[in-house]
Every structure is written in structure tokens, then in C-alpha cells.
Amino acid sequence: MSNLKQRFPSSLPPRGSPARLPALLLPLLVVAAAAELVLPHDVELPPPGAVARSVRAPLPQVPGSVGIPPLLARRSLFTPTNADTHSADATDPFRGAVFAGTVQQGARRVAVVQTPDGRVRSLPLGGEIAGWRLAELLPDGVRLRRDSAVMTVAYGQRPAGAPDQSQSKDAEQ
Average of pLDDT values for 60-65? Predict the structure, then answer.
């Protein structure tokens, strides 16, 4: 006979086999199932009657109409920013343009600028945008100069307004 076949179908699996424990517990399971079927149990059912239903809470009151601020009503729902509001802003020195980041073109790095109409252009060091000259490319933004004024703008941010002359003189020193 072959060693792969067991001699008796009721023999236990070999020692160390993970099937040995379930095989040893099988007689206990058979005895417990037989006892459950043979022993009588008194089961008490609830009395017949109407099904108990929970009381439903009343629906909340419908809120009144809510007014929409005019600034939000003019804004487009499908664009993250409205170019018309930024280009007309008198405090925006770049007329709505945003510095998106930098790109390496060969040996030189250039700033990537997105205009309010959605076009993307590159601006090299010394390049000009709205009268401001690109002086330096920083890891987190750009530094621009106009006459004696210096402004640092983070990538993706719009400048709050024209820089303070006293701060820009301190930055140069």
C-alpha cells in the first residue's frame, strides 16, 4: 500500500497536523447535537396580539427662505475663482496673474505665471510682469522689484497689495 493513503477512514490525522484538533472535537459536537434534539425545552412565546409600533417623531419645520449675498450670487458655480473680480481689484499689482511655481528649462529656471484669462506663460529672471521685475526665484515663492520696492509672493497666492516702502528698504539691507 501507499504511504499517502490511510489504512482506516476513521483514523486520526498524523501528529502536528492542524486538522487533528477538529477531528478530536468532532465526537463532542455529535454528543452536544444529540442532547439538544433529545432533551425537551420549554419555550415561552409572547401572547398573540397587535404588533407594537414605535411612535414616529414629527418632521422638522421647513426653514424659511434664505437670502444669497450679492457677491456669491454673481460668482460662477463651476469655477474656483472669478477672474472678473480679481482683474478689477485696485490692490492687485499683477492684475489677476498668479505665480504657479517654477520649471527647469535646460540650465535655467523660469517662473510659471497664470493670467486671469487662463493662459500660462513662463517668466525668466529679469522678466517683467505689470511693471514688476522678477528678481529671484525662491523655494516657496518669487521676489519682485520695482524701483526701490521689493515684494515676495508665495506660489499660488495673490499679493495683498503694493508693498510697504519701509519694509522693502529693510529687506534690501
Answer: 79
- Report percent pLDDT > 90 for the chain: 8
What's the order of all strands across the beta sheet hosting 120-124? Answer: 98-105, 108-114, 120-124
Q: Is 133 helix (H, G, I), strand (E, B) or coil?
A: strand
Q: How many domains does the chain contain in total?
A: 1
Instruction: Note down the domain range covering 119.
Output: 83-159
Strand partners, 150: 145
DSSP at 152? E
**Residues 6+ positions from 156 with CB-CB distance below 8 Å:** 98, 99, 100, 101
Report which of 108, 102, 97, 95 is spatially closest to residue 142, judged by C-alpha positions: 102
Strand boundaries in 106-161, DSSP class E: 108-114, 120-124, 128-129, 132-137, 141-146, 149-154
